[in-house]
Amino acid sequence: MTDLPQLLQDRHIHKAVIIDDVFDEIPRPDELDDDNWSVFFDDLGDDEQTALSKLFPEYEKTHATDLQNSQPFITVLWKNKTIFENAGSEQLFGEYAQTNSTGRSALDTLVNRLEALGLECSTLGRDFDETAKDADLIFVDLFLGHQQSEDDVQRAIERIRTVVDGRKNAPPLVVLMSQSTRLREKRNQFRDEAQLYGSLFRVANKSELAKSGVLERILSRLATNYEDATRVATFVDAWDKGLDNARLRFIQTLRRLDLPDLAQLHTLLLEFEGQQLGDYLLDVSDRVLQHEIESDQGTIEAARSLNEIQLDQYPAPHLAGSPDFQALVHRMVFQHSERLKLSEGNDNPGFTFGDVLREKKGENPTARVFLIVTPSCDLAREGIAEVLVLPGTLKSLSASDWSYRASDLRTPSFTAEDGTTYWIKWALKQRHTVSYEDLRKQLDQPDGVSRIGRMREIYAAEIQQIMLADMGRIGQVSNPPASFRVTVSVLLISQDGTQHTTNLPALSEAICFVGRDTDAKRVDHLVLSEEACDEFREFVEQIDPSTMNKIARQSLAAMKTDLAFFDGFERGLIIVPQKDGSLVPEKREVQAQNLTYMYIVRNEWNVDGALIPNNQRNAPLIMSVRDSETDG
Amino acid sequence: MFKICARTVLELGAELISSDVIAFYELIKNAFDADSKNGAEIRFEITIRRNDYLRIQQRIQSQSADIDRLKSDIDGALEKSASDVSLGRFREIIDKAESYETLASALEHAFTEENRIIVSDSGDGMSLSDLVNNYLVIGTASRKRAIDAALLSSGKKTPFLGEKGIGRLSAMRLGERLRVETAKADDSDINLLEIDWSEFNNIDAMLDEISVEPSTGDKKPSKDWSGTTLTISSLTADWTYKRVRFLGEDEFSRLTDPFRDSKKRPRIALYWNGERVPVLSMDRNLLAHAHAKVIGKLTTSENGPILECTFEARDLGFEHPHEIEKRSFSLPDLQGAISGTSGNIPMSAIEELGPFEFEAHWYNRQRLKRIDSIGDQKTVRDLQKRWSGILLFRDGFRVLPYGEDDDDWLALDRRALGSTGYLLNKAQFVGRVSISRIENPLLVDQTNREGLRVCLEQQAFVNILQFVIQSQLREFLVDFKRTHQSQPIDIADAKTDVARLEARAKTALRQIKRVAPDSADTIEELQHTFFEIREFFDQAQQRITEIELENRQMLQMAGVGLLVEVVAHELARSTENALASLEALKDKDVPEQIAGLLESLRSEMKSVGKRIRVLDPLSVSGRQRKESFDLKLLVEDVLSGHELQFKRHGITVNVSAPPDKPVRIKAVKGMIVQILENLVSNSVYWMDLRREHEIDFKPAVSIVIGTNPLVVTYEDNGRGVATENREKVFRAFYSLKEKTKRRGLGLYIARDCAEFHGGTLTLDETTSTDTGRLHRFVLELPDEVLIS
Lengths: 632, 788
Known about the structure:
A: seven-stranded antiparallel beta sheet; 22 helices; about 20% strand; B: seven-stranded mixed beta sheet
């Protein structure tokens, strides 16, 4: 921490201001108590009334309620309060003065500490003051008022926004402070409404600020990131301005498109394409505007500057509530739903490449969706009888569903109109065609479909391409499973955790079939001869439970009565792992006891009398499967 | 010579000072009447609350714990806020007790000594002789004389607020002991008076046997000092901080007029154990945020009283401009609206009433929102609730109990209960009425401080306020809503009741049968007519429920219902009149006269029967079927239905129409009847009213039927309509008739009937040279209605 003054210096943080209502000398109307006002006016004697009339010429003809709400009157009264002590001016102003002096002493400490860090520090009350305009560091009270009301929060927000507004590319660092327990609850609102950046903003309890090290830690973090945070601010500001410039240039281009041009456009192109003018123009505008944005020098410069940020060095954010990236993905992939309205009209459903239709059952939508993959131009031209669609399923979106795997055909994020986020799993193999007419009719029916979104072309095309590639594949006859010879031996596990070989000769000749499961993963099945099955079963029947520990005994007892278990051997359904595994009861009631029948190990040397790992001592047996080398 | 038992004083006090607030109110008024510079100061010095005292005293009596335990309980019950001196003295007294007996009396002693209410002022004070000659004279006339003198000298300001000389009984209400310390500026010593009211409780004692003598006490604090301090002890009520706080917030705050600038209000300083308890003042911003209001005054001019009102609609919950409308009602209007033809309230009562002012601010509490200078929605609602009610102030001081929570002196809630649309509950108003002792000498308090004495002027006063709020303000709001929201008029308010009238007629008929046994035929006929009316009425009601989707039709049917009711009313009244006449002839052998009476009843019945029969098609079908008929004949039919009524009221009718040939028109007959019936019944009311006030008045109606264009003018010489009300009389619920006859739908419906035919019904702008007001209604129908 010793180099904090230097850090502040390096980051050009020189000037700090503290904005807090305790720095206001004179109370405001809403900070004085109505009860005290009543007593004050009741107790004003004739002399005092005369004095007030002199000090405040409007006094006589102004109603008491209006005087109570008059800042000039309160100011006069405050400045002359000693004259009115008999009428209870002390009681009227007492609480205010008390609150102020307590609050001030706490902030005086803050001032001293900031000055000790080499900062030039000033204190401000609620009124707007130029001093705050060029401050590098602002401490602001969450409630700029004694009432601690929402209005007071708004006042604080307004103060900061005024400052930030004027310095969009070099915003100040802001520390929001308060004694209130509502500080945490209000911080996001404050950040958003005052238009601050998370990395330029901290909140701190006033009493925490007084503790050693807290202020320094806050300042150190803020200062460390200051330069980069400014870059982000500059980028956003440049974007903001760049967007304005781009808009102006774009509007000029658009304005030049007059009615005759549009008529030509319609006659020569759209009529033939079957596209609505509005729809088409919006498409064109999107692209032209994007071009204009890309041409803005300031935006490009600011974006380049962003590249310099050492993003890998950043700690966790101070506040949660970063923009919702899924929402960004949705916006990137899909057009806004309002846009869909443009396509409809004149009994023309306006189906377009990329439209996502959702199946309905009466009022309720189902999870089933369809992506239209027929090219737009075909859809637009009259005569298309069949529309090619790719079915898919809306799946709820959670962290575990997020994936960048290339193998899945999926759309990573879709936000429905009710705000629910999904991802869409596309069923590549189920593509089919639907009659255009049917699809059109279904749009209006309760048990039909509704259009819930439209993918931007590039994203829809990506899916279309994968689908087309899959369609273009040549199917092959699948390879049959392979079979390999294996040697199986069984070892008993005794009470002391050692293993002991047994003599089961029929088991030495076994076959392992290697195939795949539905997910195309390798699966090895152990197939024993009938003789081997019998031998194994008889062996199990004869095992003396007294040689093994208590849990293994239970397992053994269960295994002896579990006919399905032995049946599995006979039917060749025992799955042999690539390395280690175990066999457990399948019956649910036995499963619940957490028993293990035996461990299966593959290609391991099992030495008679050797200790086995602790976690394997709960089973009575180990089955060792070894691939026969001769087959290799 | 009467002798008075001492107890009578206690009884009198209990009767006259019926609540603690009234007791304080009287004491405070005394302080103000003494011209106190620092107003009235009321200090509660409470060391133990009475309920705790009683509870512990009972425990001592039942010896439920040992002495030390009881002493510690007493200590625990002491008010922490009491002064150290009081607490010290209290403990000292308790400490000395050693037995249950001594502890009980010590506690009683300490309670009496250390709990007190001190009411003080720095006013004129009383000399020793004032104490003897005034203070100790119950019902002293000293102030009444001064007020009477002020009334005679036509001064503007009352010299005193209290005049009955019973204020001293207030102290008795609050505690059993009273110590008065007082002095005038020229006294050198304090004058003392001590009263122990419990002495008056001796059943056998006569008043003059109880000795109460003033004495001279210490020197005054300073030479010029004057004032009075009442120390009341042996308190009778359980005073707590919360209760005193309530006094300041909800009671004392309304003892003086909170609408006046609070920095000029008379000072009432309230203390609880030395700590100041605020007497709240009203935040005027609340008034600025009323959704609607009416401000007005009654003044007197050369031409009699004038009621002027300004109605204002600020925010009625829909988009509308800020609307201000001034209305003024002169003598003829007030005659109609307050005095009416029933004669319950004579015009003289309004004239004698004297000027007063009022303002009523109306809030739709549901829609009260945050007000910046006041606070959030809840605070605003609470504030409105705190100040709600229409209070009465005389010379700036409250007349109780008007405006209290359980008082509904303007019968606003009773009225609101039965109405739809705008609810004008008392709780929705923040308002005041200001009267003065000198200007309204006949509005005097009941001695028990429970409101104004009931008299004709008081009735006129209440009636005027009800007319302004229940009728005029309501109509203003309804009409305003209709104009800006194009909302249909909700006629559910126009509830009519024929069943009650039928019952009245039946009772009368039964009695007629007894008085004149030979009248069976007539009676049967009468009964049938009533059945007919009843059926008619039920049909109209039935139609209303059936056709509620179509507003115009509904309105028509409501009109039919109203007309039927008028007819039923007339019939019931005729029957009752006939009965009265028959009873007068009872025991006299005058069969011809009896027969004559019955005959006239029968013809009257026939006549009014006609009036409803002409409405027949409308009520039976509920549809507006146009038919061809002779307008001349229809007018004659309608008038013949009123023949006997006109005769009774001495009304002459003159109809002029194109001679010889009929005026055939195609229109909905029932609607034209409604127009004519409404014009007739209005003019009968207003001519009748005029006849009551002018002996030589000859009521006359003139009807002119013209065919080019098709116009019917209807003119009477009744009270007429003020020029400024030329349009307002056609508004729904606008009525200037007296309370029981106020409906305000007749002309509204009549105009609607005219408009249905593409015509107009207007009040001609020509003023009568006689009254300076409007008298001529013009019904103009388009030419296509006329069958040439």
